[in-house]
C-alpha cells in the first residue's frame, strides 16, 4: 500500500532569497553612573577626614579622644544639619542599594577615623584596653548619634559619660 505525500510536499519549492538580518552591533553595557555625594554623605566624609587628620596630628594623646568626641557630638547635636540630612538620605535610599551602600561606606570611614584615634590613645594608656578598638569606636559613634535625640543642653553630660565609658583617663588622674 502506497502512502501519499502531504499536499505541502507537492508544491514547487521557490528559490526565494531569505531576508537576512543585518549583523547586530555589539552592545556595550552602559558605564555605571557615578553620582556626586549627597549632602549627608559629604558631611560624613568631611567629618571622617577631620578625625583622620586629628589622629595624625601632633595633638597630645590625652586630648585626642575628647577632641574627637566633641567634634562628633557637635555634628550630632540636636538641630545640627547632619542628623536631618542623614535620616533623609537613609529614607530616600531605602530602595536604592547603591545609595544605601554609599551612606554605609561614608559612615564606616567615620568609624575608622575614630578607631585610629582610639588606637593612638590606647598606646598612651588613655582608653580602656579590654575592648577591641573597632568595637569601642562603634559604641562611641552610636552614643554620639544618640545625642541628636536628646534634649538640648545635655550634650556635655552625655559627652562626659561617653569618655568615662571609653575608660578615658582625664589629664592629671
CATH architecture: Orthogonal Bundle
In angstroms, what is the radius of gyration?
Answer: 31 Å
Helix content, binned percent = 55-70%
Mean pLDDT: 86
What would CATH call the homologous superfamily?
Tetracycline Repressor, domain 2
Task: List the total number of helices.
Answer: 7
- CATH fold-level name: Tetracycline Repressor, domain 2
Q: Name the beta content range.
A: under 5%
Number of domains: 1
Structural class: mainly alpha
Written as H for each helix and E for each strand, in order along the chain, the element string is HHHHHHH
CATH class: Mainly Alpha
Question: What is the end-to-end distance?
Answer: 115 Å
Shape: elongated
Tell me the total number of β-strands. Answer: 0
Characterize the biggest β-sheet: none
Give the low-confidence spans. Answer: none
Task: Describe the protein's architecture and organization.
The protein is mainly α and 173 residues long. It has one domain (39-165): Orthogonal Bundle (Tetracycline Repressor, domain 2). It is 58% helix and 0% strand. The protein is built from 7 helices and no strands. Helix 3 packs across helix 7. The protein is elongated and about 110 Å long. It starts with 6 loop residues before the first helix and ends in an 8-residue tail after the last helix. The mean pLDDT is 86.
